[in-house]
Specification:
about 30% helix, globular, Rossmann fold, about 260 residues
């Protein structure tokens, strides 16, 4: 039996399954992935959406789900671990909308009709597609069929934890403020990122599809999703850092 066979039989112990604090849940997941050598570049893992061993298999499993069969446009987070998802979508001819880090530059569009197939992997990188990405305004956002979010942890009833900054939740809320309908929200994680319980708040976006390297989980009764932005939670500093929010306010005033 070779080393890979032995490794495939290992069953790492998950972190403590129930948490009353979001930060403790995140730290437990980051620590467990590192301790079991499941984590992959970039490092350090803390304060990131973790990349993990088998992320390519999780992406392939996710894209097997029926919601992607007729999808024309999918919003995907820019983190490293979902690069396989982004490439898989481009390979299928599906347009990608991806946010800039911390939403400081708004959104980018990756149009597979304009990207040669041999450059799909490069276009799927964390830098919004490099020369292949096209910056677009909020009024240019197309109809989105599915959203793929990065996760630090999830539960089997659809709770999701991000890095703790709330950007993915805000991106979702922006779409709802613009009149986009609620659509399925999916994620890819390692099995060690699936916990039993952690607290959530009204602005937290739940997931309805979870893919791991070995499993595809569909939440039968997804939790309620927010319908828009809670402007009272946004500080003046946040509004200054994200010109996209000023753009959104201008659109809403015109509407």
């Amino acid at each position: 039996m070779n080393r890979s066979d032995l490794r495939s039989q290992e069953r790492p112990s998950p972190p403590t399954q129930r948490f009353s604090d979001k930060g403790e849940a995140r730290n437990a997941v980051w620590k467990t992935l590192v301790e079991h050598k499941i984590a992959r570049f970039p490092f350090p893992l803390k304060d990131r959406i973790p990349n993990f061993e088998g992320a390519d298999h999780a992406a392939a499993r996710l894209l097997e789900h029926a919601v992607f069969v007729n999808a024309k446009c999918v919003k995907v987070n820019p983190d490293s671990v979902q690069r396989y998802v982004r490439k898989g979508l481009l390979d299928r001819g599906i347009t990608i909308i991806t946010p800039t880090p911390r939403l400081r530059g708004g959104f980018y569009r990756l149009d597979p009709a304009k990207i040669p197939k041999e450059h799909h992997w490069d276009a799927a990188s964390m830098n919004m597609g490099g020369t292949w990405g096209e910056a677009i305004g909020l009024d240019q956002l197309p109809a989105i069929d599915v959203i793929v979010m990065g996760s630090v942890a999830v539960t089997r009833d659809g709770r999701r934890l991000g890095k703790g900054h709330g950007y993915a939740d805000l991106e979702y809320a922006i779409l709802r403020e613009l009149g986009h309908p609620a659509v399925p929200v999916a994620t890819t994680v390692h099995a060690l990122q699936i916990l039993e319980e952690f607290p959530i708040e009204a602005h937290d976006v739940p997931v309805s599809i979870v893919a791991t390297p070995t499993d595809l989980i569909e939440i039968a009764q997804p939790l309620p999703a927010p319908c828009g932005i809670d402007w009272t939670r946004l500080t003046g500093e946040t509004l200054e850092e994200m010109p996209v929010l000023a753009e959104l306010k201008a659109i809403l005033r015109q509407g």
